[in-house]
Every structure is written in C-alpha cells, then in structure tokens.
Specification:
The protein has 68 residues and is of the alpha/beta class. It has one domain. Helices cover 44% and strands 21% of the residues. A 3-stranded parallel sheet has the order 1-2-3. β1, α2 and β2 form a beta-alpha-beta unit. The longest helix has 11 residues.
Length: 68
Amino acid sequence: MRDEIDRYIEIGAEVLMLPMFHAAEEAADFISYVNGRAEVSLLIETAAAAVRIDDIVRLKGIDEIHID
C-alpha cells in the first residue's frame, strides 16, 4: 500500500480514499502512510467498518468520511 500511496502523491493526487476496509487499524495505517501529504477520505462500505465507526472517527488525520 505504501508504494501505491507514494506513487499517487508523486503524480499529484490531492485526496486519497481508502475503500473496503474493516478495522480502525487499517485506517490508521493508511493515514500514517499518507502522512499529511494529501487529504484522507475513508469509505465506510463494509459492515465490519460500520460497527467500528466510533473507533474510526476518533482517528486523527481524517478529512472526510463517506458512509455507503
């Protein structure tokens, strides 16, 4: 995932989205990899992520969350 994030940022991505994740830890890793170099948008698309929404919204570094 780090290589993909670096590549997208290098070519000018301003917002990166994390789809289909299941746990706050996955989102935290994603946020850490982005490291403030782009906006972070989380897509709550799985039941597992939805039931963990309280933990997810507490993470620092999220610019927006979409719930499907």
